Amino acid sequence: MGSLNQEAGLVTKVCEIYAKISKLESLKPSQDVNTLFTELVVACIPPSSINIATLPRNIQETRSKLIKLCGEAEGYLEAHFSTLLATYTNPLHHLYVFPYYSNYLKLSKLEFDILNQHYLVEQDVVPKRVAFVGSGPLPLTSIVLAMYHLKNTEFHNYDIDYSANLMASRLVLPDPDLSQRMFFHTTDIMEVTDDLKKYDVVFLAALVGMDINDKVKVIEHLARYMAPGAMLMLRSAHGARAFLYPVVEPEDLQGFEVLSIFHPQDEVINSVVIARKDSSRLEVEHHDHHHKLGMGSILPSSCKYCDFKAFNNPLKKMNNIIDDLAMDD
């Protein structure tokens, strides 16, 4: 009974915050925007047994609208700080000014460790080319991986927005290393075909396909054109965090063998999923995406990540961050 009351309280809280966010005149960084989204994140971070899929239709609709608002606000936040960073002589030396940079460091390290377990160890070789789909104006995952973890790898960033790529490229251009290894492509990933075969690993951003049906279409496209045996890494969400990001289930990954799914229990919000393009099939069969995979294909091959220690809590400094982010348009 207590669990049901907690879930009801959570849903009520999220709906109240959504009502306030939806009335904002702008989602660009400001005191009101930062306060409300911080309140939303704080409400959704604690571990929860809530099953988003079982919620009433009206709550599902509210959740879908909220995810889109989160994506829009995130885009504005990244664009603002990308513009700010571009004012420095070498922007990559000042990435710490982005308030969530430490979270990206931790999440990227986690993703690299998972990739290391399933790709580098098995292949005994570092990926030569990595694609990041939905890189945005502040491609921190690509930058952090290139700077600290995959120091000889090419990174090809795909975004449909030309202005986002322009802002991102300005951050990398002054750096003598990354400017030679990081490339930006302005195109719809659904129009990229043979080029996808060039990549050893493809990262899919959490907000590419904010509606799960759209995301499944992207996954099916990647399954059709990625090289057999190549890795797909994507971000999902679990429990109450599904109010912030779309949830990708194993059955959504037709054409891939799901190797591991890691659900953080701390302030790193996104779940991490790694899958391998099925090397036994060059063509993807068109199944309904609700078709179930066998349990053997969805269980992590190692419990290594169950033992991760809790990350430092970035919310302790949230009040200072809110003050710092308060700004005029």
From TrEMBL:
Keywords: S-adenosyl-L-methionine, Transferase. One of its GO terms (molecular function) is nicotianamine synthase activity. One of its GO terms (biological process) is nicotianamine biosynthetic process. It catalyses: 3 S-adenosyl-L-methionine = nicotianamine + 3 S-methyl-5'-thioadenosine + 3 H(+). The lineage of its organism: Eukaryota, Viridiplantae, Streptophyta, Embryophyta, Tracheophyta. Belongs to the nicotianamine synthase (NAS)-like family. This is Nicotianamine synthase. It is an enzyme of class 2 (transferase). Synthesizes nicotianamine, a polyamine which serves as a sensor for the physiological iron status within the plant, and/or might be involved in the transport of iron. It holds the Pfam family NAS. InterPro entries: Nicotian_synth (IPR004298), SAM-dependent_MTases_sf (IPR029063). Its EC number is 2.5.1.43.
